[in-house]
Design brief:
heterotrimer; A alpha/beta; B mainly alpha; C mainly alpha; A: Rossmann fold; six-stranded mixed sheet; four-stranded antiparallel sheet; 10 strands; B: mainly alpha; two-stranded antiparallel sheet; two-stranded antiparallel ribbon; 14 helices
Chain lengths: ~250, ~300, ~280
């Protein structure tokens, strides 16, 4: 089944084209890495998939549903989860509270006014289980703003996973991390279930080639090359604009 | 948990005993404090929990009060209708303002809530034939709910019951999944959207709930003073309740309650000494901001955690 | 012909509103401070102006002294109080509200509770004939002075070095700092200029709308509506917003005397529902 289908998507910001006719398609369980220099339009493409910005033209569908005009929360409820390049967690809340909110969102537990959240045993259990699974138990009661950048990144990934999304968008999950932290986050990505569709923006070639089933290279708002590792490494245009230095 | 219930029982006992201990003047001052405790807590649901700083909260307080005043004085309507109508119409006004104000954030939200509230004030002030304008509406007699609440003691118990129940409801709300979602929205709207929450609906609901409790406080206030004038709608009221919330500490329900008590007691004390209450209040604002930006509860917590670390 | 008169009234009031809103808008644009004390600058400006006129008999002196004194008050507020709460909205709101109360009560103490009207300068106390109807020359003076101020502000912002720094600061304070612009001095300067403009409005508006307890709130509210309509942080928005609100207010009072406020607020609500950040505002 086709998980994500992007057809001829264009986005302009006041006359400046950030995306020009991007077409991409992912099968369920496929892992795609987006490569490209800064300003290539990768994050804009991410935002238009997640609904943080709306595409100017073109069509995006998720598991067969047209989502082009849906707001981000509606897309999330269809099984799409994402992380952001700039972490925006709930800074003044604890790690556990962050995860609890993610679980509430995933289980569509909203507009419940009476029973305290502490008494929703299933939600609490699920949040605790996630903390166990991803080795965050010790940090459970720490405020997120007191965590290191690497730890925040891990919390963010766990939050995105808490709803068992069908498709996960990771926007440079290792950017700004130390080598040790990068290893930890990549370990998390490797542990993800095989049937989860993943789109990831990544700068690190080695990381990209290791994770990806397929790679798409973007440049100036277009997808200029697509294929497996060998195809990308062998592509003249890609080496010219992106790998040129090597 | 047992210590917690003990504190609540003790608080109930103390409040219930007050009419037997306090002179009438201080009992009615306590009634006033309780009403402002409710008003301040209602605003904190919006500011402290949802992260929406409103400068027009007196609109709902005053509108609820005016509905009660007009129905009782002009309409001779039963209190069984007047009080619920006051709360209901304040809630409806909250829904209307929410739709307009929630299009904006930050400073624009602040200005719009302030401007909208001033419209309501302008109507109360200008529509003399209905509201009596600046002179207000005297003669709002206290209600009879099964028993007459005309005397200070029984009215105090009525307010205590209403404010107590409202406080319980607000505590339940902030602990519920909905209340936690509001905190999430305060911290990051984008993240909440990405997690699948309909942020606008949550903010709308918080705004309306907040307006409802503010409206109830306004109804009680007008019954208490037996009088309603544009004063209840004025931006000074909105500012006063804002300082109660911030002085006490945003993001807790206890903080605004303490803030309300401190401000009302201070006002009572200062105005018995001098005419310059507004000047003193202004200085309190400035001093609070400079020395306790996170409120009294914040000060206490800082002190407590410092001592514990040692 | 009566409509020409009404329109002129609306425009002169709009120009006055521009003076009041321009400072509010500039201060917000640069520092993201919503200054609730802005109406007080008008009030204190008008009061000081009245004292200067009463002691010296000179309107010109009032036009010079009152704005300078109020500009100094504004500079003190920025430097010693607001500075430390940069980009922190609640403390800023609280502080500026505190000063609003302090100024209001001090004014009441010093100048008493009776509303005052400033006398018009002798040279502009007469009327001229417009199509058979008398029109006060003072209002024409107000329009002239207001447009002159708008021109000076525009020149200052577009053509001077400090103006260029200001524009850079409005766009991005961090970058401005990185470029070596003394943002700290700029902040104080802009705050003082904003206060100065409002006080100028106080002296100029004194003979038309006067001053008294509560004028500070009224002026603040009108200035808010102007910037909500025009958009915060833009001089053009303040001018257009001022004229729109001035005309709406004037004609509203003619057609719907009991509900004059509605004629300002309903258009405001309509504009908001289409452009939440005003006509010329940026998010």
């Amino acid at each position: 089944m086709i998980a994500l289908d992007i057809e001829n998507v264009t986005k302009s910001f006041g006359g400046v084209r950030a995306l020009t006719g991007v077409t991409l398609s992912l099968n369920e369980g496929e892992r795609l890495v987006l490569l490209g220099p800064n300003g290539a339009g990768k994050t804009t493409l991410f935002h238009s998939i997640s609904g943080n910005i709306l595409a100017s033209s073109g069509r995006i569908s998720l598991f067969g549903d047209d989502i082009t005009q849906l707001p981000p929360d509606a897309r999330a409820r269809l099984g799409l989860a994402r992380t952001f390049q700039i972490t925006n967690l709930f800074a003044q809340l604890t790690v556990l509270e962050n995860i609890l909110l993610a679980v509430c969102g995933a289980q569509k537990l909203t507009f419940k006014f009476v029973r305290p959240l502490d008494r929703y045993d299933d939600i609490q259990k699920r949040a605790r289980a996630l903390l166990e699974e991803w080795n965050l138990v010790d940090a459970a009661d720490r405020l997120v703003r007191n965590l290191s950048y690497g730890e925040q990144r891990q919390v963010e990934v766990v939050m995105a996973l808490s709803g068992e999304p069908r498709i996960l968008l990771l926007d440079e999950p290792t950017a700004g991390l130390s080598p040790a932290e990068t290893l930890r986050v990549m370990e998390m990505v490797r542990k993800l279930p095989r049937d989860m569709t993943i789109v990831m923006i990544e700068h690190d070639m080695d990381v990209a080639f290791e994770i990806a089933d397929r790679i798409a290279v973007m440049h100036q708002g277009r997808v200029i090359a697509e294929g497996d590792e060998a195809a990308i490494r062998g592509n003249q245009q890609v080496s010219d604009i992106y790998l040129g230095v090597e | 948990m047992r210590r917690y219930s003990l504190v609540i029982l003790l608080a109930i006992a103390i409040f219930a005993a007050l009419p037997y201990v306090l002179p009438t003047y201080y009992l009615s001052l306590t009634t006033k404090i309780l009403i402002f405790v409710l008003f301040a807590m209602s605003l904190d649901l919006l500011i402290g929990y949802t992260g929406l700083a409103s400068l027009g909260h007196a609109a709902f307080f005053g509108f609820g009060g005016y509905v009660v005043g007009l129905l009782v004085v002009r309409g001779q309507v039963s209190e069984w209708i007047a009080l619920p109508a006051g709360v209901a119409l304040a809630t409806a006004l909250g829904a209307l303002f929410a739709v307009l104000a929630l299009r904006a954030r930050g400073s624009y939200f602040l200005m719009i809530t302030l401007a909208l509230a001033q419209v309501v004030w302008g109507i109360a002030f200008g529509w003399r034939t209905l509201t009596g304008g600046d002179d207000g509406l005297p003669g709002v007699k206290r209600p009879t709910f099964i028993v007459s609440l005309a005397d200070e003691n029984s009215f105090y118990y009525f307010v205590l019951l209403m404010v107590g129940l409202s406080a319980l409801a607000l505590v339940a709300i902030v602990r519920s999944p909905f209340g936690h979602a509001l905190r999430g929205i305060r911290e990051s709207e984008t993240r909440m959207l990405a997690l699948g929450f309909n942020v606008w609906r949550h903010q709308f609901a918080a705004f309306v709930i907040s307006a409802a409790f503010a409206g109830l406080a306004g109804c009680l206030f007008v019954y208490n003073t037996r009088f309603v004038s544009p004063d209840v709608l004025h931006v000074v009221r909105s500012a006063e309740v804002l300082i109660m919330v911030i002085l006490g500490g945003v993001g807790t329900l206890l903080g605004p309650a303490i803030g309300a008590a401190v401000i009302i007691l201070l006002e009572d004390f200062v105005s018995s000494l001098t005419q310059r209450w507004l000047l003193i209040l202004g200085i309190v604002y400035v001093v609070t901001t400079l020395f306790a930006p996170r409120g009294l509860v914040g000060l206490y917590r800082d002190y407590f955690s410092r001592n514990r670390k040692r | 012909m009566i409509w020409v008169i009404h329109t002129l009234n609306g425009i002169s009031f709009g120009i006055l509103l521009f003076l009041l809103a321009a400072g509010l808008s500039l201060i917000y644009g640069l520092m993201k401070i919503l200054n609730l004390t802005h109406g007080s600058y008008y009030l204190v400006g008008a009061y000081i102006g009245s004292t200067v006129i009463a002691t010296t008999g000179s309107f010109i002196l009032a036009l010079i002294i009152a704005p300078i004194v109020v500009a100094a008050l504004g500079a003190v507020m920025e430097r010693f109080f607001l500075r430390q709460f940069h980009l922190d909205e609640l403390p800023q709101t609280l502080l500026t509200f505190g000063f609003l109360f302090i100024f209001a009560d001090l004014s009441l103490w010093i100048w008493g509770g009776d509303p005052i009207m400033l006398p018009k300068p002798a040279l502009f106390s007469r009327s001229i004939d417009i199509g058979g109807l008398g029109y006060p020359t003072y209002r024409l003076l107000l329009i002239g002075v207001g447009l002159l101020v708008a021109l000076i502000l525009w020149w200052f912002q577009e053509r001077t070095r400090v103006g260029a720094m200001l524009r850079a600061g409005v766009d991005d304070a961090e970058i401005a700092r990185a470029m070596g612009i003394d943002v700290s001095l700029l902040f104080t300067l802009v705050f003082a200029v904003g206060a100065l403009l409002a006080a100028l409005g106080g002296v100029l508006g004194g003979p038309i709308i006067g001053a008294g307890p509560g004028t500070d709130f009224d002026v603040m509210l009108l200035a808010f509506v102007v910037v909500i309509v025009g958009g915060l942080g833009s001089l053009r928005g303040a001018l257009v917003g001022g004229l729109v609100v001035g005309l709406l207010d004037n004609f509203g009072k003619i057609f719907f005397p009991e509900f004059a406020l509605f004629t300002i607020f309903v258009p405001m609500a309509v504009i908001l529902s289409f452009r939440p950040t005003g006509l010329f505002g940026r998010a």
